[in-house]
Amino acid sequence: MAALNTGNIVAVKEFLKNKNQGANLVTVSSRTVLLMDATGSMSSLLSAAKETVCTMFERAASILNNLALPSDAFQLQFVVYRDYDCREDGILQSSPWETKPSNLKNFMIPIAPMGGGDYEEAIEIGLWYAVQQSEQPDSISQVILIGDAPAKERPAIARDRNASGGETYWSRTKYKTPTYYMDELQKLKAKNIPVHTFYLHDGAKNNFQIIANGTSGRCERLDINSPHGAVLLTNFVTEEILRKTAGDQGNIAVDLYRK
């Protein structure tokens, strides 16, 4: 540090650059939307999310510290989607953007599984919400979608909106304009925002593969009801947070986490 005493500003800047070269790879906070099905069959997933959110943050922060990267360089938002029978107040619920896992856990405490009388769920509403977030100044880095049923096709959307109040009702809500999951995916794809998908049942596999492949995302099966279900959930989410947050060192961070 003799450079400080001699006034050599160039040497000081070079010292700081080398000291913080890892942190310089992360210029902005990564922002991940964790989009979860919260219909009647999803109690195991919701319980696991409540149990593991603190672990996700702790493990991600630990790996980032090991790589000399800022441990608080990521934000997470929990979003749950259901179906049109839950009406405007229940079809989608979202937390604020958080860097503190305790706040996300508190958000999840009152979240309960409900609705979803037919098979497909309103994934299009969840993706629509992600697009809205991507249009904010800070945008989003990625979406992680977890569910046990595929997205609806257009006829099913029209049918279910009609059965749950009709367009007279929906026209007075924030969901007044019907949308379709592929339309929302195209908007995310245009912004290079990947959607990673994790399906709980094989019936959702093909649709979730389409969603992930269309945005260069990852698609895998998540057996949430297995003895290791909560661990799998933790690993899937933490890996994708690290991959995005660590910038050029993303794959290194994931490999380090897996060891």
Outline the structure in words.
With 259 residues, the protein is α/β, with parallel strands linked by helices. It has one domain (27-258): Rossmann fold, CATH 3.40.50. The chain contains 12 helices and 6 strands. A 6-stranded mixed beta sheet has the order 3-2-1-4-5-6, sandwiched between helices. Helix 3 (43-66) crosses helix 11 (229-245) and helix 6 (123-134) runs parallel beside helix 9 (181-190).
Radius of gyration: 20 Å
The overall pLDDT average reads 91
Low-confidence stretches: 12-27
Per DSSP E runs of 2 or more residues, the count of β-strands stands at 6
CATH class: Alpha Beta
Our count of helices gives: 12
The termini sit apart by 37 Å
Give, in spatial order, the strands making up the sheet with the most strands: 3-2-1-4-5-6
Give the DSSP E fraction (strand runs of 2 or more residues).
5-15%
What is the CATH architecture descriptor? 3-Layer(aba) Sandwich
The secondary-structure class comes to alpha/beta
**Helix percentage range:** 40-55%
Shape: globular
The total domain count is: 1
> So, the CATH homologous superfamily?
von Willebrand factor, type A domain
